[in-house]
Design goal:
Layout: E1 2-6, E2 15-17, E3 20-22, E4 30-37, E5 40-42, H1 47-53, E6 61-64, H2 65-73, H3 76-79, H4 85-90, H5 94-106, H6 113-129, E7 132-133, E8 143-149, E9 152-158, E10 175-180, H7 181-208, H8 218-239, H9 249-266
Antiparallel strand pairs: 1-4, 2-3, 4-5, 4-6, 7-8, 8-9, 9-10
């Protein structure tokens, strides 16, 4: 489900300026990344957007792949925490729930707005953004959510973004899919194994290459490959666990009830 294509090391762009160029493990992960979920191809630019950008634009998300890996693994400990059934039901249309909560915040009086944000609004929705990947390094980057409920997980995405000229940036529309949690684990494991195997090839090729005026610490490159792989698999162990809940779900329920009560009485 998670696809990527690393660029040949000769095409990797070093960091720095002329006369002070540096190659590193991070930049050797440069490449394309895309995902296939429920018939949608995520991180795929629309033909209209590609025509607008010109021929140089890649078909897919064009950025060092490790950025996705870092952002994704940072969520693993939260993803592993199962949502109660009633909270999980809200994820059938998570954007509608978040929009509803935003309206609740917007109707608050200005003098209580700040306190209300931290005391009510944020505790109500924090469980959702703790499981969100926002692709913030990309213009119009897709938003993803990963919601586990015991032996299943819902993956939702918000990909609908238009350029200033009205062109849709991505081919995928907003959507979601529910799959067995074991399938999700297999997807993540498969990505990790392929990514670090291919990066091992990148590292070995980089060691053999004469980089000329580009600085590359080859000893550090080997160390970082080992460290990065170890860190990924350490985070992966969180996904394989069934941790006790750290979220005060009863507080979430109380705030949701208060929100619904306020909508009935205040009629925003």
């Amino acid at each position: 489900m998670i696809h990527f294509k690393l660029r040949h090391i000769d095409e990797a762009q070093p960091a720095g300026t002329e006369g002070d160029l540096h190659m590193s493990w991070f930049w050797l992960t440069d490449g394309e990344l895309w995902m296939e979920l429920s018939g949608s191809t995520l991180f795929e630019y629309s033909p209209e957007a590609l025509a607008h950008f010109g021929e140089a634009k890649s078909t897919y998300n064009d950025y060092p792949v490790v950025r996705f890996a870092e952002d994704f693994t940072a969520l693993f400990s939260r993803i592993s925490e199962s949502l109660p059934d009633d909270i999980y039901a809200l994820t059938e249309d998570v954007q509608a729930f978040l929009d509803h909560a935003q309206k609740w915040l917007d109707v608050q009086d200005e003098d209580v707005h700040s306190d209300f944000y931290f005391e009510a609004y944020d505790p109500l929705i924090s469980w959702s953004y703790q499981r969100a990947l926002d692709s913030g390094h990309l213009i119009g980057g897709p938003h993803f959510w990963f919601f586990r409920n015991l032996d299943k997980i819902r993956i939702a995405w918000d990909t609908e973004f238009q350029l200033d000229n009205g062109i849709d940036l991505w081919t995928a529309k907003n959507g979601s899919t529910e799959i067995p949690y074991t399938s999700f684990l297999a997807m993540v494991k498969d990505f990790g194994e392929r990514f670090f195997a291919q990066m091992e090839g990148q590292v070995q090729s980089a060691i053999l290459k004469d980089w000329g005026e580009i600085n590359l610490d080859k000893v550090r490159l080997v160390e970082e490959q080992r460290e990065r792989a170890s860190a990924f698999w350490e985070q992966f162990t969180h996904l394989e666990s069934d941790p006790p809940s750290e979220t005060d779900w009863q507080r979430v329920r109380e705030l949701k009830s208060q929100m619904e009560k306020d909508f009935k009485t205040k009629k925003p």
